[in-house]
Amino acid sequence: MNMLNMFKSGKTAQTGPLDTDADGRPLNTLTMTQEQLTARRMRLIEGAKFGRPFHENLMLIALKFWLVLGPIAFVALTTSEVAYIFSSLLPPGDSGDKIILAGALFVDLAMMFTTFGVAIKRRDMAEKKEANGSVPGSEVAEVWTGTILWLVFAAINIIGQSAFLLHIVQSSAHPGNLGLIYLFIAARVIGFILGDATTAFFLAKVETSKLKLIAKAEREKAKLNTDLAEAEGERRMANARTEAEMERIAIEVNQRREEAAFLAELRQQAFANALGRAPSSEPTRSRVYRGNT
User: Fold this and answer.
1) Is residue 235 very low, low, confident or very high in pLDDT (cuts 50, 70, 90)?
2) What is the mean predicted confidence (pLDDT) over 162-191?
3) Which residue, 89, 99, 134, 148, is the most exposed by fewest CB within 10 angstroms?
4) How many whole angstroms separate alpha carbon 247 and alpha carbon 137?
5) Farthest CA pair distance, the chain
6) Rounded (10°) angle between helices 34-47 and 210-276
7) What are φ and ψ of residue 60, in 5° steps?
8) How far apart are CA 172 and CA 85, in angstroms?
9) Which residues pair with 73 in a beta bridge?
């Protein structure tokens, strides 16, 4: 039985369930076989959650709508501002406001498509450079040409928005602090342009491809498998060092016990031998008799 089949069935060829021995007792990474460790890693990794968390998925759904609605809202608002300025200059009853609105719509639509055209070309150029290491000079020139055109359109749009906001301020009898008002107008116009540029050049690059997310998850699984294997190996090495140290200590303790017992026995034997060889304080009769003869 190969490892994949063992993983699917949840059993090993030797012990039954992955984390128990033949008697049903739980195992740990120190007592598992290599096959059990591999199956355990596969089960843990495949059971883990990969990909984006819930809040990111929810925001990405909203982002998809924004990538469509944002540019349309930008065009609608800026076109209305330009049409309002010029319509206020027309005499009452003049129908030229429709032509003014169409002209403003043309310019803003051109800017919108230029924005996303440049964004797409920049993304394609980055992918080609990553895959091939270089990009043809003609494509680089096209991207820079599109970027310059976008800057021109952005300048036109800034002028139109500024004119609209200044017209509103000048129409007020009590505008208040003009310095602060002008600063607010500048911030609002810059924010409007940056919002459009960010939507196309940055937010549109947020990766939402399921295939790329799957590939990313597989790379994360491979790394986790390596990390788990290293952690298991480190635990086994640490346990082996601990067991070796405990064995050394046990051997040293036994040696000291044996040495102590040997020394005690040696002292006891030496003491007994010393008592057996000690001279008597009173002479025996045999010694006196032999001494008289």
Assistant:
1) confident
2) 85
3) 134
4) 71
5) 174
6) 140
7) -70, -35
8) 15
9) none
